[in-house]
Amino acid sequence: VPPDQRYIHFDSVVDLLGIGHLLDRHPANLSGGEKQRVAIGRSLLTSPVLLLMDEPLASLDTARKCEVMPFIARLPQEFSIPILYVSHSVNEILSLADNLVCLRNGSVVAAGPVETVTSRFDFQHMIPSSAGFDAGVVIATVVDGHDREAGLTRLKFSGGMFHIPRTDLSPGVPVRVRIRPRDVAISLGRPEQTSVQNIFPGTVDTVVENNGSLVDVRLNIGCPLLSLISPRAKTDLNLQPGRKVYAMIKSVSISGGAAESMTCDTP
Prior knowledge:
By secondary structure, the protein is of the alpha+beta class. The chain has helices at 10-17, 32-44, 62-79, 90-96, 114-118, 121-124, 231-237; strands at 51-54, 83-86, 99-104, 107-113, 137-147, 152-157, 160-165, 174-179, 184-187, 198-210, 214-220, 224-229, 244-249, 255-258. The strands form four sheets. A five-stranded antiparallel β-sheet has the order 7-6-5-8-14. Strands 9-13-10-11-12 form a five-stranded antiparallel β-sheet. It is elongated and about 65 Å long. The two termini are 41 Å apart. Mean pLDDT is 86; it is low at 258-267.
């Protein structure tokens, strides 16, 4: 790229990726995570209009993935570069993507904003059970503040406030949380004297039998939320569209990451 057409500069890339201390090293002396950050830097210095990342973290262990993911998350905001990110890792996709396209045998089976796609029943069942991982619904939140005495962090979202274990994130930082359907319990009345920190009034939107052994329930708590319950629970609660209920989520079951300071949850 001719110098007068470059809009991404060396010092900016070094600062963003935190690789200033690596500049005097030879490639053989870099760790896997460091090599990936340097590779991203080399790509950025071409001043691209688009980045294609094809399984960029596949060769890294969990610790190195956690090292690199926050830097990838910041690229679109810092340099206004869209990223087409290809991966089989649901954890990576749900932590990084704004828009999600799911492919099966070369055909698109789901597409749209990540919050919309993950609230679909069929998306939850696209992941084989052998993966040992629940996709969960993704919800956009913002850090509202911290309750030091209670050891909790407050995350504001369209349906109210999530309470999660205390973090070091600053107020105003965007955080995307993931809530697994099996971690969402349903009650007809507001529970009293319970250890559950997240209780939200809501309405049953859809109820779908799932192979006779489990039942998928979509709730509206100001945003879509999925619950996975037994057929007996469905019958006992007489769940049907329009029914007013309460959704209960343990604070320790909410996992998430932020664009600037991401916590990396593992399957």
